Amino acid sequence: MHHLDRTGGRIAYDLHGAEDGPLVVCVPGMADVRATYRHLAPALAEAGHRVAVMDLRGHGDSDSTFADHSTLATAADTAALIEELGGPAVVVGNSLGATAAAWVAATRPELVSGTVLLGAFLRGDGLRGLPALLLRAMLLRPWGPALGAAYLRGLFKGRTSEGHAEHIAAIRAQLGPADRYRAVTATIANSFRPVPARLDEVAAPALVVMGADDPDWPDPVAEADWIADRLGARKLIVPECGHYPAAQRPDLVVPAVLEFAASVAPARGAEEAAGA
């Protein structure tokens, strides 16, 4: 495990693969941990990529001392990690991680060679009004951690894969300590508002991956169609899958991401020529 120093704390991340491989940075969603990429990261590394898999602020092994848990803070951490390791990178994001990936692609295009957007939130403001108040009430202690864990388990609708029980246990464990629970609930309560306004600035190639049974949308296929049309992106609809395609259906998602990453990663010769 490695750490990226940021104002307010440290971001934990794992590194896989050869040091000179094209960089891929993987970003989990809210309340999730980097184990969500347990199938994808080794496969990318085996294919020759250098893969960094990070935890969000206050999640997993990252520090719980941060004050800002917004989407833009996640995007800033992602950009800082790419700069630390030497970009550009293919940025793989799930849920809020995908929102952050799109923001980095729009605002720091020199850092992004492509994005893989898994169950992405790319329009709307997040929960507001009565739904937001109900969510806050649901997450209050003492009942909040148990209700939150049950809600998150429900997002894995469809198939699960090897390591699922351990993945769920890791998510549940971070809902126990008060400091980490505050970080998780602050992340859940954040708004996606700034990101949709910048989508037209996303020029990097994108792969949109959506679980056909993702319970976060009334019609997940229609949501994926909208994102793909807006970004001119490739699209993969994953059957028997909820909100976590890379964790739930690696049999379909891993080959698609490998193909996409190979198609957009800069050739090593071109990188060396640019740095000469």
TrEMBL record:
Cross-referenced SUPFAM superfamilies: alpha/beta-Hydrolases
InterPro entries reported for this sequence: AB_hydrolase_1, AB_hydrolase_fold, AB_hydrolase_sf, Epox_hydrolase-like
Sample GO molecular function, one term: catalytic activity
Top-level taxonomic group: Bacteria
GO cellular component annotations of the record: membrane
Signal sequence residues: none
Residue ranges occupied by any AB hydrolase-1 domain in the UniProt entry: 24-255
Pfam families registered for this protein in UniProt: Abhydrolase_6
PANTHER family found in the cross-reference section: HYDROLASE, PUTATIVE (AFU_ORTHOLOGUE AFUA_2G14860)-RELATED, MONOACYLGLYCEROL LIPASE
Record protein name field: Pimeloyl-ACP methyl ester carboxylesterase
Source organism (scientific name): Nocardiopsis composta
